[in-house]
Prior knowledge:
The chain is mostly helical. The protein has one domain (about 5-95). It is about 70% helix and about 0% strand. It contains four helices and no strands. The chain has helices at about 5-20, 25-45, 55-75, 80-95. The longest helix has 20 residues, at about 25-45. The termini are far apart.
Amino acid sequence: MEVNTYGVMSIATFCEARAQKIDFSKSLAVALAGQLHVIYGKHGGLLPGSKEPLPEKQFLNNAGFMIVGGALKFCPKSVPAAEKARFEKAAASLKPSKK
């Protein structure tokens, strides 16, 4: 499945929207909409390895996290400092704790 391609396209869409001076939330919403429509329209919400469609809310949360993470690599100036800090805090909470 082309999920990785869709993700990269969404990151590129987000970065371009921000370069066009569209605010962060609207840019993220547009990038998410494109990815959501193709995943649910073309693939019925099924992702590789899943037998059941992913709930849209869960998809949007995960995809949004991935778009912001990708944007921090490809167009870091497009992510406001507060959003970067929020992303980094969430990413840190996903890492296993060292004992």
